[in-house]
Amino acid sequence: MAIDGIQSVDRSLEILRIITERKSVTATEIAGILGIHQSSASRHLKSLYDAGYVRKPDFHSFAPDYGILLFAGTAMKAFPLVEYSAEICSEINRKYGFGAAVAVLIRKRLVYLAWISPDDRRAFHIVDETDFPVFKSSMGLLLSYMDDRKDLKRRLLDDKHMEEAEGKKLFELVDAQMDDREFLYLKNFHVNKFNAAIGFEVPDEPRRAALAIFSKDKLINVEEAEKILKEEISRIIFCDAKN
Given this model, what pLDDT does residue 237 score? Predict the structure, then answer.
């Protein structure tokens, strides 16, 4: 594919991301966000409209259409880990009453493959990209550490939402636990009584994922948390082997 073609695809995908995040935008707004001419934004939007990915709720605006779900549903078949993650998280919640989640780190952002929380009004989340700060999540800290230890340290020390001493203390805690294993346990971390996460290799992919358990009401010790997580990780690997 020619360079212009690649850039065109990249731009259309970026526009589609903006539309899905904002629910409804105009060509003028898209042009302003991306710093492009309105006519260019309109051409991309027309292509997305013709393909069934966006619709026009009114004369000026564009909003997501069901073509996105059709594409996403087909694409998800290539990621069996999503289905396994949903099963594992649901089972953890049923057996222990804990919240549970599986996520990967994409461009420094957490992408949840599955997520269930006992106090959430929504029963279940599947494939959820979030703006939730990675440093308030055991999975976010663990995956960021595995991705780039030095970058995590720098970002914690520079974080505007915490004092430098607090960021340093948090990094040292993560560093000490992650030194010899891909497991992290945090007690009384933010709103939860405990958060625990374990990293694992995604089968047949050059990527790592993490499984986490957490609770606002229940507290278990580090040994119990690690035992539960290791047992559930083995189930994910076993499911993939059967597939």
Answer: 60
